Amino acid sequence: MKARQISVCVLRHGYYPHDIRVYKEVRAIVENGYAVDVICLRREGEKKREVVEGVNVYRLPLTHQRNNRFRYLLEYGLSFFSMFLLVPLLFFRRKYRLIQVNTMPDFLVFVTIIPRLWGTRILLDMHEPVPELWRTKYGQSSDSRVIHWLVRIEQLAMRYAHAVITVNETIKKRFAERGTPPEKITVVRNVPDETFFRVSAPVSTNGDFLIMTHGTIEPRYGHELLLKALRQIKEEIPSAKLMIIGNGENEPNIRRLIKKLKLQNDVILKDWMPLGQLTRYIAMAQVGVVPLMPSPFSDLCQPNKLFDYIVLKKPVVVPRLPAIEESFDDAAVLYFQPGDFRDLARCILEVYRESPKQQERIRRAFQKYQELRWEVAKNDYLQVVNRLVN
Question: Domains of the chain (ranges plus CATH)?
Fold first, then answer.
């Protein structure tokens, strides 16, 4: 008789398989021989339950909306309550050996209390530091009562879990400073799975000098800064064009600023698209830009787009922030002073003026990336999973 597979459950207040980090982790667990269930939210048109590449996906009748803090709290509360009811029901049928909870919110980990009492191991994936993100979005000081409670919830969640993973050493250090033993935290980088980066045919640029950025359009991601830099860049490079791929709550403001700066013919706005299409546009760009604004949250970020550009061997312009400096030196990327559009313009112009010299910088960035690539991160991740399961 065939031995029953060990069952693992993954929880995410987000969408599957659209959440790339969760998708990569689930694929890694499946490839390692485990049976996997995913509990997540449901977008319009998606099925309540389906099997995706051998994974049982259970979707709650909830959607994620970027809105004010009260909407977030309501949404997270409903998600917590729904999963609190569903997880035990599935547990007693499937006998999960491990449950992984991907934040945000941090308190979602506590929906696993009944399986945990029965011996299930709990792995917490701390993707983003909530206190710093809250401070950045809502402008609260580090000593406010709200931030104090967010830190307490964060630390309680990490203490409750049997093991914790996060995305870079800078965030790990911050968690440790707040009280979590560093040996409990493993870094699993949120880097691309290169098997998704097969470019069939790049889109033509028609001879333009194309500047590229992609991702969520929110104030902290610095699209306004890049537009101001573009206006200065065009004084030297009339053929310069900026492509922004993504959407978000700040998109109306970006459109107004484009009109105000008279850049309607120089900026290409495209909605978010599947990775297979996205790579075609990245492949045609002359430079990739990560225009993060300085903030408590940005200090801890290594944005996904940074690695996307490096994998596709594009010169990258980034703000000088601690988490990025952790992995890449000045020989690998071009650094500008955070929040300074003139210095950002200077770096992009340097790529244009010294285009042949950028090949050495690209080579150096790709070399550094080899130490961080998904095959390395996946091995780190599976070591944690296997240790907990066994």
Answer: 7-191+374-389 (3.40.50.2000), 195-370 (3.40.50.2000)
